[in-house]
Amino acid sequence: MRKPLLLLALVALVGAGCNVSPYAAVVNGTTISRSSLDTDLAAVRGDRLLLQAYQSNAKVNVLGTGESTFDSGFVAAVLERRIEAELVHQAVVSKGIHVTHQELVLATPDAVASAGGQRSFDALPPSYRNELIREEADAVALASRLVGANISQAAIAAYYQAHLAQFTSTCISVLVSPSQAAAAALRAKIVAGAPFASVAQASSIDPTTAARGGDAGCVQAGQLTPAFQFIATLPTGQVSPPVQTQPGLILVEVTSRPQQPLAQATPTVVRALLGNAQTALTSYYQSALGQDHVVVDPRYGHFVRRGGQFVFQPPSGPSTAVLAAPGGYTTGEVTNPPAQGGAPGNSGIPGQGGAGAPLPGSSGSPGSQGSSGAPSQGGSGGSTQGGAPGGG
Predict the structure, then answer these.
(1) Is the preceding omega at residue 22 within 30 degrees of 0, hence cis?
(2) Sign of the CA dihedral 51, 55, 59, 65?
(3) Which stretch of DSSP H or E encloses residue 370?
(4) Which of 18, 200, 266, 352 gives 214 a disulfide partner, CB atoms 3.0 to 4.6 angstroms apart?
């Protein structure tokens, strides 16, 4: 539902809300403590799967160049996600939105994806997984109210039934022949009763599909090239006339048409029902940054306006100097958060200043440590040499 930066998993590790100091950020009086941010970062370093997921998918560097360090851009991104999650949760509470069991269920696939996949999600402690789902459910609940979307089970089922073709795949086998005469002879042999797989294995000039008895995988109607649109309506078990392509003449047989179950299709359906909810949620977040009171410890960065949008800017200076230490950051003296307004050197929203604050310099030791739901894909659709039904 939200930004696919793999940072929402981190948001869930330690809940914000305790008025402790020193602080990393204060959101309408709710403190996100530096120690909780330290714990989040130590969690990433301590879980190999989660660290690999971040390093593979994040848009910024994760680790710094020094021992036990994190890139300051990554730390800034983590903190911004914490701020966003807190603003969304506060909106859910202030608007009297009750997050339903259905919304918790709908949020689970995105929560798994945001953690880098099922393996890294399962590696998280149960309390963290539940919090991650709750954070995502807050976003789903708020977004659906913002756009007036109906994502009830009945609405999901109705959309699914009305768009069954979208959730149905066509599995095919192909046989590539060098000439019209050869293709006609092979087709006649299959029509007379010879198994398509046996004929393809013995006679197809495409070695890849021939080795699999012609199996070319499964495609959806939207993946078919113009020359092979007929596959969408070709009856199962029937062999098509030869189709001229660059590799040769192709015979196609539809072997099955599996339909994705509603449970698997639900994430895709929900995204369709929500429509432009992501845009609405982003707009709400931007508006909240401009109207609400957010104070950030400048060692982590500050918000700036850029192109009419609030952007979280990492601190200036070396970009790889931020250290994760279980005892908290020890360099720079930022103590109790102000009750109102920005403190000197801190950036309030809409705020300035603090970009040149010193980065932490303490040494530290490491600590410990989201499904598209689309129908089965494929689309090799035949010859690997080009001209395949799935578009080669």
Answers:
(1) yes
(2) positive
(3) none
(4) 200
* Runs of H (alpha helix) within 47-100: 48-57, 72-94
Tens of pLDDT along 208-243?
999 999 999 998 877 888 889 999 899 999 999 999
Q: What are phi and psi of 176, to 5 degrees?
A: -105, 125
The Cα 45–Cα 62 span in angstroms is 10
Q: What is the pLDDT of residues 337-373, one digit of tens each?
A: 444 333 333 333 222 233 322 222 233 322 333 333 3
Instruction: Give the Cα separation of 387 and 224 in Å (integer).
Output: 11
- Please give the domain boundaries of the chain with CATH numbers for all domains: 8-149+275-348 (1.10.4030), 169-256 (3.10.50.40)
Residues 28 and 292 sit within 8 Å (Cβ to Cβ): yes
- Could you tell me the two tokens for 248? 């040769």
Interior angle at CA 102, CA 97 and CA 107, nearest 5: 85
Task: Write out the DSSP string of 330-369.
Answer: -SS---SPPSSSPPTTSEESS----TTPPPP---------
Question: What's the confidence (pLDDT) of residue 249?
Answer: 94
Separation of alpha carbons 77 and 59, rounded Å: 10
H/E stretch holding 134: helix 126-147
Sign of the Cα pseudo-torsion (48, 54, 57, 62, in order): negative
User: 308-336: b or e for each residue (b if 16 or more CB lie within 10 Å)?
Assistant: eebebbbbeeebbbbbbbeebbeeeebee
- CB of 371 closer than 8 Å to CB of 84: no
Looking up tokens 């560097």 gives 61
Give the model's pLDDT for residue 157: 95
Cα–Cα nearest to 122, from 366, 371, 370, 372? 370
Is the whole-model pTM more than 0.85? no
Helix (H, G, I), strand (E, B) or coil at 305: strand
- Cα(46)–Cα(64) distance, rounded to whole angstroms? 15
Q: Say if residue 126 is preceded by a cis peptide, omega within 30 of 0.
A: no
The side-by-side arrangement of strands in the sheet containing 23-27 is 30-33, 23-27, 294-296, 347-348
Query: CA distances (Å), 202 to each of 194, 205, 214, 251, in order?
Result: 12, 9, 10, 14
